Amino acid sequence: MGSSVKGYGGEGDTEALPMAIAATPTGGSWLAWLGTDGKVHLGKLGCDDKLVGTPTSFTGIDLQDVQADATGGVLLLTRKGDCHTGPLCGGESSPCNQMVMVRFDNNGKTVWERQVSNLTSARGGYDDGARFVWWYQHHGRLAYDGSNYAAYFGVAITVKNGSCVDIHEGDRMQVVSKSGALLSGHNSFEVGCSHAWTSRIVWDPRAKKFAMVCATDNDCRIAQPNPYRTVAAGTCDGTLFGGDLVLAKSSGYWTAWSQGGTVRLSHFAGSAAASKTIKTGASSSHPHLVTYGSGKMLLTWQSGSTMKAQVYDSGTAAAIGKQFTIAAKDHDYQAFKTYADGSAAYPAAGSTSTSIKVARVLPS
Questions:
Q1: Which residues are CB-contacts of 73 (< 8 A; sequence separation ≥ 6)?
Q2: ∠ at Cα 104 (46, 26), nearest 5°?
Q3: Could you tell me which of 195, 224, 242, 336 has the fewest CB atoms within 10 Å of its CB?
Q4: Per-residue pLDDT reduced to its tens digit, 306-315
């Protein structure tokens, strides 16, 4: 990549995310990675998954996601913010950072930037009403409706409590137009699930809406946010984690999630709870799920220094074929992305500190 890539190190929703990938309409990719230089780097990949041209870079202390369209794409990243003085009622919550969308063109150059948290020069993280990014659960994902980009991410919530403030944690969804304007509506909200982790979002062109799921200790479940709607019941024993969210074949959604190290697939539609949940043969706390080919989805999970994978029917969740191995190192919170040719790709740690391996599962 021509620069050092932040290593996997500790994996967790409180740790920095090393890399993310996005499919372009022409079959290539945008590959983003967090450098060791305090910047988020962005490079274009050809259809052979090799770097084309010279990467660009953006100020950012944590990478969240990248998505692409015909004229460029959007990065979701974290930048430094200010806490101000509070005072806090107790404990510590620093740092107080911003979540930012950066629009880039097909040359990887900045077009606009838009903060989707709400810090200003007058409102720091320790001021009542602040919605900011801290060290705690804060990762996020992007979705694109063909015109607007939605960011769904973990957020710190500052609430006045007498003469001091308390810091809580939840999630937030904001939508930004193609010109960089912050939009109301579009299923956006200030705070959804709380406490929340593994925020996942997808655009559903059939229902014409952004759909979301979170894992939450509010009744310990996988849920849809704002308002809460239970997808699948879980247990708050430290082993409840969400995976990914994809469109089901005809209607509704499949979400992968894990409890007690066993991976489940749950189908739900509208505001109803899951109509079907299956226990898969995967043993993992952090499964990945992605649309794959026509009418299929690909489930992957860590298996030692490699990944295991299984294809499922996206209508019935019936397994298709046998499990197979992907020769790439898994990361708990990175994601596969789907491509127009039916393949799916994943950015993984390379053999050196300046390289990235792209694992691609070709359509069957």
A1: 22, 24, 30, 66, 67, 103, 104
A2: 30
A3: 195
A4: 999 999 999 9
